[in-house]
TrEMBL record:
<keyword id="KW-0694">RNA-binding</keyword>
<feature type="repeat" description="Pumilio">
    <location>
        <begin position="209"/>
        <end position="246"/>
    </location>
</feature>
<dbReference type="InterPro" id="IPR016024">
    <property type="entry name" value="ARM-type_fold"/>
</dbReference>
<dbReference type="InterPro" id="IPR011989">
    <property type="entry name" value="ARM-like"/>
</dbReference>
<keyword id="KW-0677">Repeat</keyword>
<feature type="domain" description="PUM-HD">
    <location>
        <begin position="1"/>
        <end position="348"/>
    </location>
</feature>
<keyword id="KW-0810">Translation regulation</keyword>
<dbReference type="InterPro" id="IPR033133">
    <property type="entry name" value="PUM-HD"/>
</dbReference>
<dbReference type="InterPro" id="IPR001313">
    <property type="entry name" value="Pumilio_RNA-bd_rpt"/>
</dbReference>
<protein>
    <submittedName>
        <fullName>Pumilio homolog 20</fullName>
    </submittedName>
</protein>
<keyword id="KW-0963">Cytoplasm</keyword>
<feature type="repeat" description="Pumilio">
    <location>
        <begin position="98"/>
        <end position="140"/>
    </location>
</feature>
<feature type="repeat" description="Pumilio">
    <location>
        <begin position="280"/>
        <end position="320"/>
    </location>
</feature>
<dbReference type="Pfam" id="PF00806">
    <property type="entry name" value="PUF"/>
</dbReference>
Length: 349
């Protein structure tokens, strides 16, 4: 069998998102018979085709074969797929994987189908040889797979069952596209799962570093902010400290935002980052702090800042600093939105 693993880690590492992925079909393994005859074959046709027989197939027959495989993989009725797979031995599964992945466009169409995605996932991890075909196909059109609603689950499953070398190739591709994946509607969810399940400390930390280094732009992104939130919830102290360094001076602005305020609230849960946030709140000029306290999103940040500093008795200076800064505006905070903050202030008057 061709040695595809050798090329997995660094092949096309610098390809851009818009660059058209190659559609060169991986060669069929030597000595393996194809066990899936396409519809239209006569009873006299051989049930097992050698590689030389494959080369002799007409264009129409090849097209029919591809359509038949597509139908089996994507049909609502899973029975034909289950029956077929149950009868295939290791070598025949390898041939099936070759047929499924020989054309990138065809493979991507199946992976983007809800049923197709599930059935590809069931074929992953069957054997290293089978996984080699799928790894090559996934890497050829990686960005299109990782950012698709259903195809992304193929990549997630691959990251749990592939061997170390194939996983490393996947990690390299993820790092290459990390920011673009994080800013994608479906990609951000896939990236969060991959970070959570990462079993390689080196690549886990590399992903943390990418998120932390780009924390400000991701925090202001409609989907990237979910990745920042997720990483903060994993409570990696080094990563959290790196994130707060990047967000220093921007916490108030983020607190006014629908999603950004969640990130600031998460920063308030760790002592080191809490100090950074509260000190920034206290530096607000004029009545900006009271505007934040009355804001539909910002009020949650101010309320949490008061509660965590009140609880941490060794930093009472931060708590009383906020109280004294807010007290002159108590009458304005009694309105809806700031009522919880007003209650805290009343309790310490």
């Amino acid at each position: 069998m061709f040695n595809a693993v050798h090329h997995l880690r660094f092949a096309d590492a610098r390809e851009s998102i818009t660059k058209e992925y190659p559609t060169v079909a991986p060669p069929y393994p030597r000595g393996i018979s194809v066990v899936i005859p396409p519809p239209g074959f006569t009873s006299s046709s051989p049930s097992h085709l050698t590689n030389s027989s494959l080369a002799a197939l007409t264009h129409q027959e090849s097209k029919m074969r591809s359509q038949w495989i597509f139908d089996v993989m994507t049909n609502q009725d899973a029975a034909p797929f289950k029956e077929m797979v149950s009868k295939l031995d290791k070598r025949e599964l390898q041939t099936m994987a070759s047929l499924l992945t020989s054309d990138s466009d065809h493979f991507l169409m199946i992976a983007r189908n809800k049923n197709g995605s599930r059935r590809i996932q069931k074929l992953l991890g069957k054997s290293d040889d089978v996984d080699t075909f799928f790894a090559d196909a996934i890497l050829r059109c990686f960005f299109h797979i990782i950012t698709d609603r259903y195809a992304s689950y193929v990549a997630r499953r691959a990251m749990t069952v592939f061997d170390k070398e194939k996983k490393e190739a996947m990690y390299e591709r993820i790092l290459h596209y990390a920011l673009h994946i994080a800013r994608d509607r479906h990609g951000c969810l896939a990236l969060n799962d991959i970070i959570t399940d990462a079993d390689d400390l080196y690549y886990r930390n590399k992903l943390f570093d990418v998120v932390a280094h780009n924390a400000l732009s991701l925090s202001n992104d409609a989907y990237g902010n979910y990745v920042v939130q997720h990483v903060l919830k994993l409570n990696d102290l080094r990563c959290k400290n790196n994130i707060v360094v990047k967000l220093r001076g921007h916490c108030v602005d983020l607190s006014f935002q629908r999603r950004g305020n969640y990130i600031v609230q998460l920063l308030l849960e760790t002592e080191e980052s809490m100090v950074v946030v509260v000190e920034e709140l206290m530096k607000c000029k004029g009545d900006r702090l009271v505007k934040l306290a009355g804001n539909e999103f910002g009020n949650f940040v101010v309320e949490k800042a008061l509660r965590v500093t009140q609880k941490e008795m060794f930093r009472t200076d931060l708590f009383w600093g906020l109280v004294h800064k807010l007290m002159p505006f108590l009458h304005r905070l009694r309105r809806p939105g700031g009522s919880n903050i007003a209650s805290i202030l009343d309790s310490v008057c």
